[in-house]
Amino acid sequence: MALGARGTVFVGSWIGKVYAVIDRNGDHKADRVVVIASGLDQPNGVAVHDGALYVATKSKICGSMTSNNASTRHRPLCRP
Q: Residue 74: what pLDDT?
């Protein structure tokens, strides 16, 4: 898991998906959960650095979706 801008938590799952758990009002409860990547090879590590989101899968590190826009717009993190 990794904490991004505006309280969004990014979570990888062994079933090949990465989620953005969004807290819009700051009450520390999820208001929305968005699948931001799917079809990945066991995404097991997620990190935010300088506003970019990186994901470690079983075979590679990929990324650079901007973590600031996960609640509305996203582009693919990795090619499956």
A: 43
